Amino acid sequence: MATVTGEHAELIAELRALADTVLDRLDPILAKAQQAAGSAATADGSGGCSSCSWCPLCALAALVRGEQHDLVTLVAGQASTLIAALREMRDAHERTAAAGSPAAPADGDPVPPRSVFAPIDVTIRT
User: Fold this and answer.
1) What DSSP state is assigned to residue 106?
2) Does some domain include residue 9?
3) Assuming Cys at both sites, which of 42, 53, 108, 123 could form a disulfide with 70, CB separation 3.0 to 4.6 Å?
4) In this predicted structure, what is the pLDDT of residue 1?
5) Burial label, 57 (beta-carbon count in 10 A; 0-12, 13-18, 19+)
């Protein structure tokens, strides 16, 4: 694994901040879509288009009108789960990176990478 230099550390910090911002901005949008899909109904009380409950065009139209649609509900629920999983993976990665990061030597020399080569003894019998 390559060592992280100052430039890389700054880039990683910026990417994490960007990911946090994206996830934070998606949460309210998905919550609103899930709430609209779960609670709103059409004026006639049917709850949306009944003949095409999985049509993406009808789902988009229902989302715009604030009506309930099966596809909108499903996508909003799955997207919320995906965001929660991404956050958990990010947090787990940060915990393992913080716990397993090797300390730099006192003299400031970079830590040499470990070799993945493991010598083995082979005996050929004839």
Assistant:
1) T
2) no
3) 53
4) 45
5) exposed
